[in-house]
Design brief:
The chain is α/β, with parallel strands linked by helices and 415 residues long. Helix content is 26%, strand content 18%.
Length: 415
């Protein structure tokens, strides 16, 4: 049983792995952990089952009961029945964008959502609320398939009551909301939850809704699942985390504040889009040069350098370039040679990293029109080895600046 006082809440995915085993392990279910709610949970799941099987639940004009994922759905013990079916833990069953990012580039036998010491709960259109370990069948059920599905889980604050009961049982002190989509986030009355513990909602600076799921997956993998309870309790509102897609920032408000993208009002939201553009970490190589080039200054420029009030691997907050060690100032000076670089923002840092005394920086290939280039600074800091950096640049010039900086940093032995 997990003993951490940290809880992460996310959503299911439409993309799922097929197959499974016949054995159902009830002890892994949410209603086993909250036995006083078992009867009510099974009642609501059966109502969701009936809605899924009705002709009124449709997707693109087709009854969802006829979708391939739903053809072998049985009323097994996960619905309080006795029919035999095939089961797989949720952390294995779901394979959408959030889950794929968590599993990317790790050993095939590693399952971060299972191995984490922290609690993870998943909101599902069919199951309501499940643990990451819970045994589930292959299914497809989105909230927009039938408006009564959403109403079912919101009625009398049912899902909110479950989360609060879970928080009480495991003495949860902090919740990270990684739901991404308004439709699922609003199934929970977060004001009630915040009366029991601290809640931080995660938003991206470039995407909203389903499009931010890959970034949230990276955020969960790199900054939450393997961190200690002590470190996660230190995280506060307004903290920023960088990854290869975009910046993830945490807020106490359940809606993104001004300046952050919002989902389109009235737009039907799906859990999982079938395709998305993937931006991978790249090495400092390129077979062709850009046709255009950013203007290069002959001398370092005075640009904004700050950690926005956060601590860094240097054991202090950064408010200007001179707060940095000389060798890191040298790197910043070379980054500032591109006239399209506006500022350098220091984000989250980690104690882990390459065991080298010299500092070096690695850039991540940017997405067009996002206005920044993410990077990681590695070296022997005072209290850490890896520092996340966001290089703010002129919008529309991201990739040109990216390749220009790669050339400069290689020439100056900073990469």
């Amino acid at each position: 049983m997990r003993k951490s006082k940290i809880l992460m809440v996310t959503i299911c995915s439409n993309r799922k792995n097929k197959g499974g085993v016949r054995e159902y392990k009830k002890e892994l279910s949410i209603f086993s952990l909250l036995p006083s709610y078992e009867k009510k949970i099974l009642e609501r799941r059966n109502q969701a089952w009936e809605l899924l099987k009705s002709n009124e639940s449709t997707r693109e004009g087709m009854p969802i009961k006829d979708l391939p994922y739903n053809l072998e759905l049985k009323k097994g013990p996960d619905f309080g029945g006795s029919s035999s079916s095939r089961y797989m833990p949720a952390y294995k069953r779901y394979s959408g964008r959030f889950y794929n990012e968590i599993r990317k580039e790790i050993n095939e036998n590693e399952w971060p959502l299972k191995e984490t010491s922290h609690h993870v709960l998943i909101i599902s259109g069919l199951y309501g609320l499940i643990t990451a370990d819970e045994m589930i069948q292959l299914y497809s059920c989105h909230l927009p398939d039938n408006q009564n599905i959403e109403a079912l889980w919101k009625k009398n604050g049912f899902l909110t009551n479950l989360i609060i009961a879970y928080i009480r049982k495991f003495s949860i002190l902090k919740v990270f909301d990684l739901t991404a989509q308004d439709l699922y986030r609003k199934l929970i009355n977060w004001d009630r939850v915040k009366k029991k513990c601290e809640v931080l909602h995660a938003f991206g600076d470039q995407n909203a809704g389903p499009a931010v799921l890959p970034s949230l997956g990276i955020f969960a993998k790199e900054n939450l699942l393997t961190e200690s309870e002590k470190e996660l309790l230190k995280i506060s509102s307004q903290e920023t985390f960088l990854n290869g897609y975009e910046e993830i920032k945490l807020f106490e408000t359940e809606s993104p504040p001004a300046g952050y993208p919002k989902e389109e009002s009235g737009k039907e939201i799906s859990i999982e889009e079938e395709s998305y553009t993937e931006f991978k970490n790249t090495q400092f190589e390129r077979t062709e040069k850009p046709n255009d080039q950013t203007d290069i200054s002959h001398h370092p420029r005075d640009i904004l350098v700050t950690s926005r009030g956060h601590n860094t691997i240097f054991g202090k907050k950064i408010t200007e370039k001179k707060d940095l060690p000389n060798e890191v100032q040298y790197i910043i000076d070379n980054i500032s040679l591109s006239n399209d670089v506006i500022s350098v923002i220091f984000g989250r840092f980690r104690s882990k990293g390459p065991k080298t005394a010299e500092f070096s920086v690695k850039l991540f290939e940017p997405k067009e029109s996002q206005g920044h280039i993410n990077a990681k600074l590695s070296g022997q800091g005072t209290i850490g080895r890896t520092q996340e950096i966001s290089i703010k640049v002129t919008k529309g010039m991201e990739k040109i600046v990216y390749w220009t900086l790669i050339g400069i940093l290689k020439e100056k032995n900073c990469s």
